[in-house]
Amino acid sequence: MNERAPIAQPGRSVGVPSRPPSNLTGALPRRLQRMGTVTVGISLPREWVGERGLTPGHSVFVRTLPDGSLILRDRDPEREPVSVSLSVDRAEPVEHLFRRLIAAYLAGATEFAIRQPGGLSPEIRAISRTFARRAGHTESVSEEGATLLLRDVSLGAGPSVPQILRRMFHLVHLLQVDAGTSWTGADFPGPSALAVRDDEIDRCAWQVERGLRMGGSGASLGDALRFLLWARDLERIADHAVLIGEYGSRLAEAAPPESVRRMLSTYHAQALEHLVASNAVAEHPDAAKANQLLDVGEALHETHGALAERALIRDSSYRWPSPAVRSLGLVLQSIDRTTAYAQNLAEIGLDRDLDRLTHRGGGPTLRPVLAPDNSSTSKRGGQRRT
């Protein structure tokens, strides 16, 4: 079981006593009153005002939730640090700390105090730097004795969840395009360069989940769930781009015949065309187009089976070394998995369009979701599984 950080709540520090709970219980009816020519308002409960030490002239902060309800606060939670304290035992694997830092970050923490009895080990410092680099906008602000303090130094609200998803897709598409040059040898940047760029895509996925968990997206519950699935599908497609680049470059070392290289390039281009169209229908829902893309995806799965049989089983015109055969099979498999995750995006577009047509307001819809396969990446463990 993974170690989990305490869940940090916006506007509140983990482990720090919070304001005493209000004595107010239940719903308190208030009548709207006219407060000018166009303004209406309500009076606030005296107990609530008194507990917070508010007086006339103080500011309060109101936020609208997707269901239409309002949250009223006596302070702006976005301007207050949300702290989490993580104590690391010397016998604990450093990977556990990385997972706990990510869990706290996704829960909305902006300050991370890392403590290790007897002083911070070099491994703890290294994993803290890795987290700060991969999370982005996070820096080490102090180190005193056995405590290291990291802080999110970003300024105010960042891009919206749809904007992050748009950027994420752009990065994923470019990654897949470059991966498709790995078996041709033309301008391929190398597997390690793809893995570095994959870290930026992971960061986008974390930002989406963090924004949704902190309630700042303004999306309906249904769309919030789909945004999360959308980000995870794109993340998996990026993982497979890295794998395509890795095994495609190994295939290139075996000098495959031109017919094999052309076959892979054509098949990969078809999968990318399907990915672009599926992402577009997720962004601009259209049930008819989504269904067409799901059919195209099924045809591409059949293409994968036919190509694998022809290239790996029936084609005896070329004497394949075992490593080359394995590399070709894994490239074909990752292109097929890319198609499967693109189909998930088409299903998101289908669900979103049905919500609009039935006027359900984006309520949650249950549908099968592809589980991460054995060639995906453990984002919190830091180890790539093949």
Q: How do the strands and helices of this protein lay out in sequence?
A:
Layout: E1 33-34, E2 40-41, H1 46-51, E3 61-64, E4 70-73, E5 83-87, H2 94-106, E6 111-115, H3 122-135, E7 138-144, E8 147-152, H4 161-179, H5 191-213, H6 221-253, H7 258-283, H8 287-314, H9 322-358
Parallel strand pairs: 5-6
Antiparallel strand pairs: 1-2, 3-4, 6-8, 7-8
Helix pairs in contact: 2-3, 4-5, 4-6, 4-7, 5-6, 6-9, 7-8, 7-9, 8-9
How would you characterize this protein structure?
- This protein is an alpha+beta fold.
- It is 52% helix and 9% strand.
- It contains 9 helices and 8 strands.
- The strands form 3 sheets. Strands 5-6-8-7 form a 4-stranded mixed β-sheet, covered by helices on one side. A two-stranded antiparallel sheet has the order 1-2.
- Strand 7 (138-144) and strand 8 (147-152) form a beta hairpin.
- 31% of the residues are buried.
- Mean pLDDT is 79; it is low at 1-21, 361-378 and 380-386.
Keywords:
flat, 52% helix, four-stranded mixed β-sheet, alpha+beta, disordered N terminus, two-stranded antiparallel sheet, 386 residues, 8 strands, 9% strand
